[in-house]
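User: I'm curious whether this sequence folds into something compact or stays loose and floppy. Could you predict its structure so I can see for myself?
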Amino acid sequence: MDNFQIETAQNIRIRQNAATVSDRILAFLIDIFIIAGYGILVLLLLNSLGYKPSKSLIVVYVLFGLPIFLYNLLFEVLMNGQSPGKHFLHIRVTKIDGSKPTFGSYLIRWMLRLVDISMASGSVALLTILLNGKGQRLGDLAAGTTVISEKKQITINDTLNVDLKENYIPSFPQVTLLNDTDIQTIKNLYTTALKKKNYTTINALKDKIIELTYIKTNLKSVDFVDIIIKDYNYYTQEM
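Assistant: Here's the prediction. I'll summarize afterward.
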C-alpha cells in the first residue's frame, strides 16, 4: 500500500493510504458482477412481461443501458466516493488534499474511464497507478482525486503499547536487550496466563526474561513481568 502525505492550505499534514491495486481490481470485479446481475434481472423481467425486441428500444435503453452506463458516476456521487465494490473493500474516492470531491471531479474521472479502463482493458489505469505513487489513474490525475483505503492499519507497535503514567519511572533498562517479537510473545503469554491464573507460566516467563536480560530481582513474577512490559514500552517510545 502506498502512503503519501499532503499539506493543506492551513498547514495541516494529512497522511493518506492509497488503496492497493488488488483492492481496486477486486472492487471493479464486484461492480462488474453486480452490473451483470442487474442486466440478467432486467432481461428476465422484460421476458416475463412479454417484451419483444421489435418494440420500442427506449424501454431497453432506460431500464438496461442507462443505469449500467451511469453506474459508477451515480454511485460515487450518491455514496460519497464509493461504488458497492469500493464500499465492500473499504476504499473511497477523495480529493488529493483529503477533501470531498465535487460533482465535477466525479464527472471527469468517470468520463476518462473510457481511456483508462474501457479502451485499454484497464492497462492504462494499472500502469498509471503503479507509476504515480498516489493511487491515481489518468481520470484521477485530471480530476485531482485519488482512491484511498479506509482500512485500519495495525502495526506491531499497536499491539505492544500499554498505558503508562505521565511520570512513569522505568526500573530495568536491561529490557532494551529484548526486541519487539520477544515482548509481543511475553505480553500475549502473560495476559493469557493472568486471566487463567496460570502462575506457573508467569514464573517461567520471569525465569526466561532473567535469562535473556541478566536482571536480578526479588519481585514477584506477576509484578516483574508487568514492569518489564511497561519498561520496554517506555524505552522504545523514547527512542
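Summary: The chain has a mean pLDDT of 83. The CA atoms of residues 117 and 123 lie 7 Å apart.
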